[in-house]
Amino acid sequence: MDHVRTTCSLCEASCGAVMTVEDGRILKVVADRDDALSGGFICAKGAAIPDLEADPDRVRTPLLRKNGELQPASWEEAYAFIDNRLTAILEEHGPQATSVYVGNAAAHNLNIITYFEDLAKALGTTNLFTAASLDQNPRQVMSGLLYGDEFALYVPDIDRSQLVWIMGANPAESNGSMMVAPGFLGRMQKVHERGGRTVVFDPRHTMTASRASEYVPITPSGDAAFLAGVAHTLLKLGPPETTALSLVDDLGTIEKWLAPFTPAAVADACGIDAETIVRLATELRETEAATVYGRIGTTTQLFSSLTCWLMDMVNIFAGNLDVIGGSMFPKPLLAQPNTIGPSGVGAGFTVGKWKSRVSGAPEVVGQMPMACMAEEMDTPGEGKIRALFCLAGNPITASPDTQRMATAIDGLDLLVCLDIYQGETASKADVVLPSPPRLARANYDAYLYRFTVRNYGRYTQQYRALETHERSDRETLLRLMAIAQGHGWDADIDALEDATLVATVEAMTQLPESAIEGRNPKEIMTALRALEPMERRMDFGLRIGPFGDGFGSREGISLQTLKDSPQGVDCGPLVPRLPEALRTVSGRIEAVHDIIGTELDRLMTWLGEARPRFTLIGRRQLRSNNSWFHNLKKMQHPTRECTAQINPQDAATLGVKSGDLLRVSTPKAAIDIPAEVSDTLSPGVVSIPHGWGHEMLDGKLNVASANPGVNVNRIINYDEVDPLTWNGRLNGMPVDITKLAIN
């Protein structure tokens, strides 16, 4: 019996864990008390890892569609099929007929997060879609425009904060998102023990709100109005002198833009009275270590990009950006665009480097918005998508306008899914390629460690060798790339990757201020080739990163350092990074953009508009994880029901009690869902969790099929998108509610 240190890697908290392993099976998972970041915290999802790994419904061998059914096949058969079908598509229709979709689960998989962009490049397509365009691109785009890099993403320095605002987020149940802070409730409690305060703004009295010092109900999509009122107040009070403020360009324009948004002007629209807005803004300014954090509720609504911009302005005008205890920029161990090369200046950031074929949707952070994915598949003409490689994702369930997405995917000539389940999307595939079990793969949460509340990293080594029927995700993706480039599936993939790495190393030796500037690329490659092929990129990124040893040129870390520290490597608390972190052309915070002025005009118009009778919002659930965690009996719990929560006053008006069937509708579609009367909801708000609706699985996932729930995305569409990023409006949708039946 072995005790194996690892990370949970099921959500963004990236908690340290210890697995008890016997005869190749994971028997138990507990928290790792020695982990440098999580320090002994783990949630119910982590404890369910043994069930996830042993789930009899998991895909463990390739599946190939034969006679209309997915049937077990060899890897060779699967690759040969893909080679033949993809080659024909490329020859007849060209590279733009291909596409890649990457789901949220890829963020927890080192190999997929490392290679997915390479797959799109190998295909030669700009049709790269990811779940980021569902829930986070507005935040990344604002960081790009203001700071020059979409991954210049600040997080609350919660371990040293005295005042924490939490907007549109429920980290008590999500465990934190775009913020790696394991055991968030414990961290909140320590804020209180230091004499500090936490304030939650949400239309729903969440679990996080129940533990906060103060809960402030807010109108769905009212975040921008509220923040505009706060920013107006802070400018009137006078922003403290900070490095961040000194770097802001054209402050006069910002003051002019925000002048109409007095607390009195925004109060009715956001549902927070003017006196409270002034009180909260004043407290935020006068508290030395304060931070404003927002998540999905702020990035999936009517004013997503504007809300993110206003959050930045509030953090700057309150004196809280890039100060200890405020909102700070992490410095990831792996090299990032904002930690290598000349500091404080760069190429800047743009949106719309190319456009989609049908609607002219803009490129955003190198990807296309999911809002245009279905139409690119179902609209005839040159460039119509005919092949989709779906990596660790389920767009049929995850995307708004579910039925159109499902129909569009049905019409593809080739669908290849890299997945562990036959979910709604994978069950329609021509080929399903399985990821290996947890014990047979190494991992490092490279994507998530960009958002840690300390500068930290933890590497989990591969526990056992791959069995004969298993393949690493690295090998799978490299073979798909080889097929796309015409080399054939049985090409020497190590040699192909080596050539790519040589080019990367050569570029870094020529980059000014790089840790290996001026070095001989052959020397660097000799050091890397001493490692296993799958370890070379990781070691390179660590050694040229901000804490790396520069391949012997300074004291620092390497991959071996992480291997020698299975409990994680802590490189210390966050430190102020401005202006060093900037990669704007001007070397300043570029806060003034025409789109912001346009969006503020739209917000001013919205302030005077009538509000709908009912407004839809989402709901986090501790024992759920998007669309793929519903097949485990251990995760079934009364708190994880797929219901429409409704305020008691609204329920009384409609004559509804818990268990009654409601029809929730928009002009285009309707769903029928059980009611749950809850005093956690503000009047006029209805809450439905996402990721459900497994009725189309036909028993492929036995537990999920027996408890399908309802997919709220059936009534959400892309009629309204964020004007800058084309993110869909998933929260704050007007809906109608009708009682259908009584228990």
TrEMBL record:
Pfam families: Molybdop_Fe4S4, Molybdopterin, Molydop_binding
Biological process terms in GO annotation: cellular respiration
Domain annotation 4Fe-4S Mo/W bis-MGD-type: ranges: 1-57
GO MF assignments: 4 iron, 4 sulfur cluster binding; metal ion binding; molybdopterin cofactor binding; oxidoreductase activity
EC code: 1.2.1.2
Source organism, top-level taxon: Bacteria
Keywords: 4Fe-4S, Iron, Iron-sulfur, Metal-binding, Oxidoreductase
Organism: Candidatus Phaeomarinibacter ectocarpi
GO cellular component, one term: oxidoreductase complex
Entry protein name: Formate dehydrogenase-O, major subunit
PANTHER family: NADPH-FE(3+) OXIDOREDUCTASE SUBUNIT ALPHA, RESPIRATORY NITRATE REDUCTASE
SMART domains, alphabetized: Molybdop_Fe4S4 (SM00926)
Main enzyme class: oxidoreductase
